[in-house]
Amino acid sequence: MTKKNHLTSIPQHEKHLSDAQVPTLFVHGFRGGDYTTEKMVLASLAHTDANDFLKATIDGIGRITYEGTWTANKYPLVQIVFKEKWTGAHFMAYWIVKVLKDLSKNFEFEKYYAVGHSLGAVALVLAEINAHSKNYLPKIDKLVLVAGPFSGVIGLGDLPNVNRINSNGRPTFTSPTFIQLRLTKNRFPKNVDVINIFGNVNDFSNSDKYVSVTSARSISYILKDHVRSYEEVEIIGNNGEHSQMHDDTRILDAMVRFLF
User: Fold this and answer.
1) Which CATH architecture fits 7-259?
2) Predicted pLDDT at 12
3) Paired strand residues for 196
4) Cβ atoms of 113 and 142 closer than 8 Å
5) What distance in Å separates the CA atoms of residue 35 and residue 115, rounded to the nearest whole number?
6) How far is the first Cα of the chain from the last one, in angstroms, to the nearest whole number?
7) Which of residues 244 and 16 earns the better pLDDT score?
8) Structural domain boundaries in the chain
9) Which of 30, 103, 164, 192 is in Cβ range 3.0-4.6 Å of 119 for a Cys bridge?
């Protein structure tokens, strides 16, 4: 597969910037787009002394188009967008690694931060697991997971109040993706700070209407005792609805405090 535009063809301040830079990737979920992470990017711009960001768009046949700017400040921001809205987590993870390879080749950074909403959260974890043997790639240092369906979504592998977190932190029922993550967790870097944010609309479902609290929290069984630090934040009420969470002020504030 080829890239429509190479990274060096887009506006940028300079090539081979200091490895002290720590970019932040933003990844939307299933049926999402650039609008999904727009407010997350804008909130980050306000806290990083940047006036622009880089957008990497992957089309349905895997061509990557870059637009915008890799800024010269400490925290360049990179929004990853999949034009094919039905892209699955494994394909998303594959292309996240490809984008990381492009960026690190041009800008030589050693670590990065990432924010994923919904399936984008799952894809970011898979991407790091997939890249474990690629020592030339930068490693994730801070990870924000928002509404991640780590053990299925409601109606597809999960049912409200049926699947529960056991006393040992493991979900009663697990999805194929969860099993894969569990079996390969040792490939995920240990020196990572993780914050897992999930919603609960506070009705009978104990969910954000699409992802149950159990499914979102199930990643703790995999990462909590593996990574450097792990924190959970539950958003209760209307703003805890799945498609509202990426724009919620409390979540945006928690995200920028955690990252920057």
Assistant:
1) 3-Layer(aba) Sandwich (3.40)
2) 52
3) 145, 232
4) yes
5) 14
6) 35
7) 244
8) 7-259
9) 30
143-161 per-position pLDDT tens digit: 999 999 999 998 887 877 8
| 102-106, 114-118, 151-155, 246-250: least confidently modelled range | 151-155
Pair of tokens at residue 232: 């959970």
pLDDT tens digit string along 22-56?
A: 999 999 999 999 999 999 999 999 999 899 999 99
Whether pTM exceeds 0.90: yes
